[in-house]
Amino acid sequence: MRQLVECVPNFSEGRDKSVIDAIVAAIKTVEGVKVLDVDPGEATNRTVVTFVGEPEPVCEAAFRGAAKAQELIDMRVHHGAHPRSGATDVLPLIPVAGITLEECAQLARGIAERLYKELGIPCYCYEAAAFTPERRNLAVCREGEYEALPEKMGDPRRKPDFGGDWDEVAQKAGATNVGARNFLVAVNYNLNTTSTRRAMAVAFDVREKGRKAREGGSLTGKLLKDENGRQLWIPGTLKGCKAIGWYIDEYGIAQVSMNITDIDTTPLHVAYEEVCRAAAVRGLKVTGAEIVGLVPKKVLLEAGKFYLEKQQRSLGISEEEIMKIAVKSMSLDDLKPFNAKEKVIEYLMEDEGRKGLVDMTVEGFARETASESAAPGGGSVSACMGAFAAALATMVANLSSHKRGWDDRWKEFSDVAEQGQLLLDQLLHLIDEDTAAFNRIMDVFSMPKGTDEEKAARAKAMEEATLYAAQVPLQTMEAALKTLPLALQMARKGNPASASDAGVAALAAVAGIKGARLNVRINCAGLEDKTPALPLLERADTIVTEALALEKEVVEEVEKHIEL
Q: Higher pLDDT residue, 122 or 222?
């Protein structure tokens, strides 16, 4: 899975457009980073920038943005309505896909250390990146704001994690708070009422903080306090959730407005179901939900799968269909159309200009293969055959999960279909990757070869590219081999009416495996050093042997169903 990290730095400038543009431009200089939003605030004199990408580019972009902010913003003359302590005030990293919060915390600490070592900017580490429990709270790190920094620098308990001198750099740039936190999902739940008070009651029921305790458990009784005079609270039902109730003139309804600050503990669909339950207890109905801002893809996929399970339907369907189930189940299109391409971070990261083989029609792919170009060739076609094998095995599993009278077996077939979808994704990727590996070899021919040093570099690059070109079709063989047990399982236990499809899956898989083996062999033959080729060739031969045995079993099972 591709690793994606979101970064949401807050810069202490919201009025001077030239400064804001320069900071954003510095961030955009890093290839592989996409700026999703720039939100300046005049009253707060603060701009929030949201960008996303893989870990290394995101960390570099964060550093460059902070460096430009240090250059252009002078905290000695800064004033605004929002708490702040530095030119780059907060710099949080947020895991989106393929990376953990703990990994983001390590990256955040690395950024903080680099900001101090290379730029001299003092840094506090907060939330998941904090070195001490009390500094998990951003308010503790930013206590007293910029004006308190001289005093804090001289206090060993309160000085930054990196830096600690009130020198000229610190006076101008202030201190930056670098952290890591979970993705925050902002969502509003639409209620069939115009009463803000009733919406607020539902919010109090579900939010983690809950509501103030009162005598008799009433909403208007005397407030209850402990022996020290502190207010007692009745906690709500949802961990990691903040919520209030409000009335929206634009829609003419009341809503429960919620921030889910820990989507691992409380996924969106769990929050939705609980708000529906709490609303129903008070005689209200949730008519739908409205996602504010962006969400990681997993939020909607988890929701879609949750509702598919409730319906006892196969989870091994396309990503697009799972998304559709999520949208309809939570009525995310209740107030306005919901376009996943505009709301899901991963989709926004897709390169609109990129068109690979998998983006072509079947005819387009076939005609491109038939052209005078050496790529795409047999390797990509072999991966395509493997992809069709995975698709057919998945199809039989999904059809079996819907077969009349087999309702109690839906999970059995759903598990097979999910495995098939994962293999399908992998093999579709390998269609283009095989061509990319070939192009990598072609690129070596354009390298200079005048000096001995250049010749050596060229020879090394050719060996590496050729070895990779052998490894990719071996990956195709490994993935295609995994489709055969699925085809066998479906030939034996799946819908008998689709047995022939399971058989074709096996034949396609073996064709892809045999074809990919030829590509492994021809690229290994091009290596000057045959040492790394030997284990690849040995594994390729083993896969073919295993595949042929499985193919035989599948065909025998299929023949049992279609005897004339």
A: 122
For domain 185-349, the CATH architecture is 2-Layer Sandwich (3.30)
Is there a contact between 488 and 550 (Cβ–Cβ < 8 Å)?
A: yes
Question: 16, 82, 334, 561: which one is catalytic?
Answer: 82
The encoded tokens of residue 73 equal 């913003």
**In terms of DSSP H, where are the helices of 29-174?**
55-72, 101-119, 138-141, 149-153, 168-173
Q: What is the pTM of this model?
A: 0.82
Phi-psi region at 502: left, alpha or beta (left = phi > 0; alpha = psi -120 to 50):
alpha
Mean pLDDT of the chain: 94
Alpha-carbon distances of 178 from 66, 133, 175, rounded to whole Å:
11, 15, 10
Report d(CA 95, CA 298) in Å as an integer. Answer: 11
Whole-angstrom distance, CA of residue 549 vs CA of residue 530? 29
Output helix, strand, coil percentages for the chain, rounded to the nearest 5. Answer: 55, 15, 30
Q: What integer is the mean pLDDT of 430-453? A: 92
What is the pLDDT, as a whole number, of residue 349? 81
Q: Is 249 a catalytic residue?
A: no
* Mean pLDDT for the stretch of residues 185-194: 94
Predicted local confidence at residue 485, as pLDDT: 98
18: its two tokens: 């030239």
Residue whose C-alpha is closest to residue 123's, from 88, 160, 155: 160
- Please give the C-alpha separations between residue 119 and each of 19, 76, 89, 108, 111, in angstroms, as whole numbers: 19, 18, 15, 16, 11
Q: For the chain, what are the domain ranges?
A: 4-180, 185-349, 357-561
The tokens describing 71, both together, are: 């250059």
- CATH among 3.40.50.620, 3.40.190.10, 3.40.50.920, 3.30.990.10 for 4-180: 3.30.990.10
Distance CA 480, CA 508 (A): 9
- The residue to which tokens 């009463």 are assigned: 195
**Alpha-carbon Rg of the chain, whole angstroms?**
29
- What separation in angstroms does the CA of 491 have from each of 159, 349, 389, 555, 562? 68, 40, 13, 8, 11
Provide the pLDDT for residue 150: 96
Residue 351 bears catalytic tag: no
Tell how strand 46-53 and strand 176-180 pair up.
unpaired
Provide, rounded to the nearest whole percent, the portion of the chain with pLDDT above 90.
Answer: 84
The answer to whether domain 357-561 has CATH 1.20.120.680 is yes
pLDDT digits (tens, 9 = 90+) for 306-321: 999 999 999 999 999 9
The pLDDT tens digits of the residues spanning 249-297 come to 888 999 999 999 899 999 999 999 999 999 999 999 999 999 988 899 9
The pLDDT of 55-84, averaged and rounded, is 96
Q: Using the CB atoms, write b or e for 60-69: b if 16+ within 10 Å.
A: bbbbbbbbbb
Q: Looking at 89, 205, 262, 434, which residue is catalytic?
A: 434
Whether the predicted pLDDT of 374 surpasses 90: no
28 pLDDT band (50/70/90 cuts)? Answer: very high
